[in-house]
Amino acid sequence: MSEIRVDTISEKTTANGVSIDSVTLKDGGATLSDNLLFNASGKGVYLGVTSATASNLLDDYEEGTWTPTFEGFTATTQLAQYTKIGNIVHIQVYISSVASGTATSAKIKSLPYTCVTNGWSPFIVQGQFSGVGFTYHVLGRVASNDTELTFRDNNDNPIQGTNFDTTSFALMQFTYKTNS
Amino acid sequence: MAITKETQIAKIEVVGEYKAVQIATDTVIKEDGVELSRSRHRKVVHPDQDISSEDAEVQAVCNAVWTDEVKASWETFKASQSEL
Questions:
Q1: Dihedral-angle region of residue A118 (phi above 0 means left; psi in -120 to 50 means alpha; beta otherwise)
Q2: Any bridge partners for residue A109, and if so which?
Q3: Which residue of B has its CA nearest to A84?
Q4: Closest alpha carbon to B26 in B37, B40, B13
Q5: What percentage of chain B's residues is helix, strand, coil (to nearest 5)?
Q6: ipTM, 2 decimals?
Q7: What is the CA A73 to chain-centroid distance, rounded?
Q8: Which residue of A10, A117, A133, A145 is most buried, as measured by CB atoms within 10 A?
Q9: Is some CB atom of chain B closer than 8 A to the CB atom of A86?
Q10: Which CATH architecture has domain A63-177?
Q11: What is the DSSP letter of A134?
């Protein structure tokens, strides 16, 4: 027999609930003893609502690494990780051996997801810089519709590759929105 | 007992007006064919980038969606952003 059809299955012992393999149904709730896995991609969970509302659907989570590329300066990547929750991307980056570069806007490129249109995301960068007003902290900004960020001084001017102190470092963590 | 390491393209996604192509690549470690671990690496390529070193499957997607119109549109957009 491979199929049983019934209208109701009730617990035999009060407060024990009903268990099927690793799933226990009890008093309107469910307990799982393993991870929840959907059999199709792009499926998720509606949180906080009693009907299927798109704005309440959490249907994506991912964590991994990415490989930064640099424009206007050179550096060695020590850590470049991301976590995506829904449409939010959180990035952590640590670069070392930063070397002063060219007199062009300093950029880190190749972010793991494309930023949404007009989704500019400013953040603070800790590192060592020269000739930009303050030595240890400058601003960074993720570019709209793109996968790159620029460094900015306290007057919102782009920082050039020549403003990096040689043999320096930079630490960053920031969040931006993506439409993927 | 054989430990193997392989890379697999997990996702290729075309995103947005300028047809950015997002690529997720998984590194899979197996022992005697049984998966032990899997880690993900991501990158995005834009219409002005050289894709000659990308996987053939990625190149095919890029070449399909990066029409001359899309490339021109991306170039115009990038130029408009240069002063921001």
A1: left
A2: A69, A148
A3: B42
A4: B40
A5: 30, 45, 25
A6: 0.83
A7: 25
A8: A145
A9: no
A10: Sandwich (2.60)
A11: -
Residue at A159: amino acid letter: I
Summarised one tens digit per residue, pLDDT across range A51-110 is 999 999 999 999 999 999 999 999 999 999 999 999 999 999 999 999 989 999 999 999
What is the interface size between A and B, counted as CB pairs within 8 Å?
57
The full set of domain ranges for chain A reads 4-58, 63-177
From B17, B1, B53, B25, select the one nearest A117 (Cα to Cα). B17
CB contact under 8 A, B22 and A146: no
Q: Report the alpha-carbon distance of residue A37 to residue A23 in Å, rounded.
A: 13
Q: Which residue in A105, A179, A180 has the most chain B C-beta atoms within 10 A of its own C-beta, making it the best mutation to test that interface?
A: A180
Whether chain A has a CB inside 8 Å of the CB on B16: the answer is yes
Q: A32 in helix, strand or coil? A: strand
- Note the pLDDT of residue B81: 85
Residue labelled with tokens 């009693």: A50
pTM listed for this prediction:
0.87
C-alpha distances out from residue B26 to A136, A150, B51, B79, Å: 36, 29, 19, 34
Q: Which two tokens stand for residue A34?
A: 């393993």
Instruction: Categorise residue B32: left if φ over 0, alpha if ψ from -120 to 50, beta otherwise.
Output: left
**Tokens standing for A36?**
């929840």
In this structure, what DSSP letter does residue A163 have? G
Tokens of A31: 């307990």
Chain B environment of A112 (Cβ under 8 Å): 22, 42-44
Distance (Å, rounded) from C-alpha A117 to C-alpha A82?
Answer: 20
User: Is the CB of residue B38 less than 8 Å away from at least one CB of chain A?
Assistant: no
